Amino acid sequence: MNKYYVPIVKCKLGEQRALEKLDDSVKNVTIPLIEIPLSKKEEPTVRLINSFWSSRKFFFYFSPDWFDSEPEEFPAFIQQYIVPVCNNSLGVPVIDLSYVGIVEDWEAFAKNGVAIRLRNNEFGAIEDTLNALFNVTELRRENTDLVLDLQYISPDDLFAKTSVLKAAFSDLDNASGFRSIIIAGVSFPKQISSIEGKKIHHFRRVETELYALSLKLAHRFNFNYIYSDYGPTDIEDIPFVVGMSPNFKIKYTIFDEYLYIKGLPIKKGGLDIGNVRELAKILVDSDDFSGESFSWGDQKIYEIATGLSNSPGNLTTWVSYAMNHHITFIVRQI
């Protein structure tokens, strides 16, 4: 097993800041998978990522939104967007299994290697598409990372999801030949709304159980396993509705749970320093708080809770705190 961690993060300001502020000892064993939204199309990708993750290895993923309307343009897309990143950084491109058939030049695409990502119904294409890929192209397993992304896993569907994972290895040829196999998922609950405010709520973090199973599979099939998750986030973007007012909230990772503290709506003073400090103090005063020296995110939460800082921040700032703590916590946990 490789002692690395692959957090899957959107290339947004909160996540960027969380990565930038990691301690070097954490950065050294972290390889983020950075999902680049279409809104960043006019900004050079290398320059953007170097602004917060410079001179280190990373995976990068352009969603099909970038080219899906014109798949025949994908070869030109590779030359315009993917090749420059590979040539000017340690970036490894990530491609969905559904799109491997339209890659014409694997040598240019995979200068630093390539990661193939399987999600949803793509697991059913392992035998016909993934196994065959290495027989009909110049791509080699030893230069390929495989990302098995189970996406959202609730406690209720953990058995079904793990069954899919086990079946994948029954279908997969030569698992030990891959450079690594990255197994990912997220169990942070979707769109929490009708819960009591100003108290800590505990939600089971089933990623720890997925991790335990993955270790067993790695031992059985002798592959290089890397743990991956999305952290305390909803992987589905909530569509913006005119007039909506999100609540301030604190998300926090502990050993086998996610903590959630709900505050007031933003329009009702949710980001006022008094409300923010009250919620921060609830966390800091609990036995689950890791301590102000644990991470940059923990330090910032502690400063607000204790009055050392009078800046409440904003929703993006608190994404930074939560994700920075989460990545640090996972690195130390695994």
Describe the structure in your own words:
- It is a single chain.
- The chain has 334 residues and is of the alpha/beta class.
- The strands form 2 sheets. The protein has an 8-stranded parallel beta barrel with strand order 1-2-3-4-5-6-7-9.
- Strand 4, helix 5 and strand 5 form a beta-alpha-beta unit.
- The longest helix is centred in the C-terminal third of the chain and has 19 residues.
Note the topology:
Blueprint: E1 5-10, H1 13-20, H2 24-27, E2 33-36, H3 45-50, E3 58-62, H4 74-88, E4 91-96, H5 106-109, E5 114-119, H6 126-136, E6 144-152, H7 158-171, E7 180-186, E8 200-204, H8 207-221, E9 225-229, E10 247-253, E11 257-265, H9 273-284, H10 296-305, H11 315-333
Parallel strand pairs: 1-2, 1-9, 2-3, 3-4, 4-5, 5-6, 6-7, 7-9
Antiparallel strand pairs: 8-11, 10-11
Helix pairs in contact: 1-11, 7-8, 9-10, 10-11
